[in-house]
């Protein structure tokens, strides 16, 4: 005879790792067999029986039921909120998850791709454990920093039809599709009465086909804003509203630069290919060392003057404008600058720049000359104090008494310096342009 204590069921929960749970239900009323129901992760329930020695089982196991945690809760865990991957980031978009539910995670593993205000970045997890649940699915946009809202779904959106076994059997016998039955049971569950009600209803006449109405083509397309475009709009608006801009424009002779560029490229043996922009960057960095007041930034309570020329180069990408930085440009040669600009611009267009590669900088260059733009004025990139807008190079006739025709053809270029009057006075900006002209019109100085 088995005591009353043995005529009940024991429920045990066993942990595997930090996620998987095994539930064991043991009816002790049977002498030599028990039924075990196990659930691992998200796998279906499996049921199997095993023969054991019942007396040995009681002797080796405590008969007191234990519960390690509630069946509907998770083991000890932490929720990872939307990280701030850049100082200017206020919200982000969720890209592709690199881990699946149940996957083990080690420190340094890429968990998910995050679209910041500037680029698409990989978010690396710094803890070890397992991915228990994805709260924000791939493609979710505008998730605020520090939040992580779980997505909610009801049973009707999962594709599963909730119906009682009797209702399913009756629907099969009567040839009724459960998709056509409206459930009146708890939480919309389909009952036997629901199936009988639909089967006994008189057939209705089929609906007449409706001729589709072709709407006229819309005269416009609404393009959703990316986080990057939102940040660009906000920063440029703030700059134009709060920064007192003024503009200085000069025309420079580009003959010597073009000649030196051609000579160096011909002798490079394919190791490098210099552009006019490389000379502009080097000339700007050299002039900043002579007039450091322009190499400064406004910080409300003070003006920060930089010792190195970190040149931000405005680069167009499919998502918007970004400014990768050539650091310490004053100490780098033209070939090094050329190689670095090409490499940074390439990764910028792919959205693979690191935050430190586009945040900061002490001076910005925006060159639209390759698009045939003669001259323009650029908006300052705060907290920097100046930005140089570069136009295209064009030929121009100038008087020359030594020539047979009394004139000659020269290559000229217009540049405009936008200055923050809080930091750079007009005389200081003019002095910087004078130094910049001396380098660009005598480019051999850049090789010294």
UniProtKB/TrEMBL annotation:
Enzyme Commission code(s) on record: 2.3.1.-
The keyword Nucleotide-binding appears for this protein: no
All copies of domain Lipoyl-binding, residue ranges: 77-162
GO molecular function term, any single one: dihydrolipoyllysine-residue acetyltransferase activity
Keywords from the UniProt entry: Acyltransferase, Lipoyl, Transferase, Transit peptide
InterPro entries per UniProt: 2-oxoA_DH_lipoyl-BS (IPR003016), 2-oxoacid_DH_actylTfrase (IPR001078), Biotin_lipoyl (IPR000089), CAT-like_dom_sf (IPR023213), E2/Pdx1 (IPR045257), E3-bd_dom_sf (IPR036625), PSBD (IPR004167), Single_hybrid_motif (IPR011053)
Domain of life: Eukaryota
Cofactor(s) for this UniProt protein: (R)-lipoate
GO BP, sorted A to Z: pyruvate decarboxylation to acetyl-CoA
Pfam families in the cross-refs: 2-oxoacid_dh (PF00198), Biotin_lipoyl (PF00364), E3_binding (PF02817)
Protein's UniProt name: Dihydrolipoamide acetyltransferase component of pyruvate dehydrogenase complex
Residue span(s) of domain Peripheral subunit-binding (PSBD): 162-199
Region (Disordered) residue spans: 196-217
Family the UniProt entry places it in: Belongs to the 2-oxoacid dehydrogenase family.
Primary enzyme class: transferase
GO CC terms of this entry: pyruvate dehydrogenase complex
Signal peptide location: none
